[in-house]
Every structure is written in C-alpha cells, then in structure tokens.
Write a structure and sequence with these properties.
Layout lengths: L20 E2 L5 H8 L11 H7 L5 E6 L2 E6 L7 E2 L3 E2 L7 H14 L5 E6 H10 L4 E4 L5 E5 H6 L6 H13 L4 E4 L5 H13 L6 H15 L2 H4 L1 E8 L2 E12 L2 E9 L6 H13 L5 E3 L7 H8 L5 E3 L1 E5 L16
Parallel strand pairs: 12-13
Antiparallel strand pairs: 1-2, 2-3, 3-4, 3-5, 6-15, 7-15, 8-13, 8-14, 9-10, 10-11, 11-12
Helix pairs in contact: 2-8, 7-8
Length: about 325
Amino acid sequence: MPNCCACKIETKIDRSELVFKPITLNVKPLIDSYTKPWMLECSDLSFTNLYIWGADGKMEYAEKNHVLYIKLNFKGVPVFLWAPIPMHGVEVDYRQAIYDGIAYMKNIGVEPTFRSVWTPFRDKMLEACPELFSIPTDIAWDYVYARESLATLKGKKLHGKRNHINKFLSKYPDYEYRKLDPSMADDCIALYDQWMTEKDEETTESLQNEKLSVELALHNMETLGLTGGTIYIDGKLCAFTVGERLHPHMQLIHIEKADTNYEGIFPMINQQYVLHECEDVELINREEDMGIEGMRKAKRSYNPLKMIEKHLISIRDLTDAKGIWGDDSE
C-alpha cells in the first residue's frame, strides 16, 4: 500500500485539457491501433464494446501525446476514465499521462478514479505513480473458459449442463443451428422485444439501453468484425449470440439471448456457437457479471478457467469511501 500522499508528489500538469470526442465507426482504426497491439484479454477495450455500449455519449475518447483515454459517463455513476493506453512501441511519459487524466477529472469536479483497470495496466500505473491506490473490483472481472470445456461439457462439474442439452435434444430433435447474418437482424430484435416483456418494470430503462447496443451490433456486424449464431425451431428464431475474435487465441461473447420457453435453450446456443464459430481459439471470454447474483451464479456454473481481474485506481484510499459507486452507494 502506498505510504505517501499524491498531493506531495510534484508532477508537471500539461494545461492543454483532454478533448473528448464521440466513438463512431470511423474511429475504429485509430482506437484499434492503440488497443490491438497490447493483445488485451480484457473485454472492455474491444472496439465493439466501446461502440455499442458507448452510444449517446456514454463513452468518448481523447488522444494526447500518443496516449488514448476513454471517458465513461453513465447515469447514476460519477464520470471516470479507464487506464490511459499508450501507443505500443512508442516511448511516452506515462506518469504525465496519468496525471493529465487526473487533472481532467478534477477540472470537471469529480473524484478522480480510473476504473476497470486490467492487471497489467494497474501494474504499469503503479510503477509510474507508486503514490496511487488500487482496489480490486470483482464485479467487473471477466470470466474466461477453456474452449474445449464449453464445446464438450465434459466432467462432473458440467454434468448439469449436459443434462439441459440432452433434454433440449429430446424435445426439439429437429432444431437448426444457423450462422447469424444481417438478414436475421429483425428476427433477433423481435426475440429481444419478447424477452424484454418478461422483465419487471424496474429494469425497463436499462433494457432499452441494452436494446440499442444489440441493434448497433446486429446492424454493423461486418464493419465490427462480429460473428454470430442462431437456433431455429420449427422455422422460428429462438436464440442468438454475437461475438468477436478479441485476439488470436480468445473469442469474446458480447450478446446472448434466447426464448426461455424452450428448456435448455441457453446451454444449447452457448455450446453451438462455440462449436461452429470458435473452432480455432483456445479461450472464450464471456465478460463480467456486473454484480448481478443470477448472472454470477450462471457464469460460475460453467467452471471458468480463470478471471481477468480489474481494479480501481485513485489518488486516495477509497476502500471505505461513500458515493463513488453512484446513486445507490451507501
């Protein structure tokens, strides 16, 4: 734990403020030029995630002195940044880059925090600024599975998943797996709308935001480099999933929706997508559970191989601080 206060460290602040811009499709090459060379296993920095979840100004980017910054401004949560990402292979003053980010957050009147900081970047930040504080944030940790495990579901721990699939096969032996293409987008949205009607009113707003993200992904699959899979029963689309190659050895799953009236449909679309679209990868990243108990239970039930750990970096110890997690903080 650092034993000195950030305010005692003299760091030159570049007064030219960061200028943030919308994340649009035409900046994909620029952002990829920063993120891809780092071979990131962290799902957050996939351009697709930035684009589909950052719509309507919820995420923006800035570039300064060969460093990329991502700002997040979600309802109910104070504005924060992700770790500054230096251009790979270019020598930068990383300490200065960190404090430029801190200065920006101070200038807009929020507690300076860098969140969802992947462990290698946490280490890089603390090496440059040992006076900063780090807190693990497990609600943001990605679940990573062995591709072989999800494809075969072998072993005692996955016995329940095999049972679900066997029940599905016994009830729907004539199901079809089809590769998702743009012509199926409207059917996928209709399925999403149906799924949404089963949720309570309290989640309606968040689901509307998610629906926009789903639409952006489905209508821009080719540009974003996405692949998808579907399950049809009696000619009706009953499940779909969308993912991408995060790096050569890892597939990232962005979206998975299904009609729960069909028993075993979720394990089935999960396995079928892995079998058909992920043949040449070793690992499957199924993103975080966001602290949602049901989602956490479901993701743990697939026996993850490892977790991609993420952290909050701050200028003071926020372990017991109130208000930094949003409107619901106690």
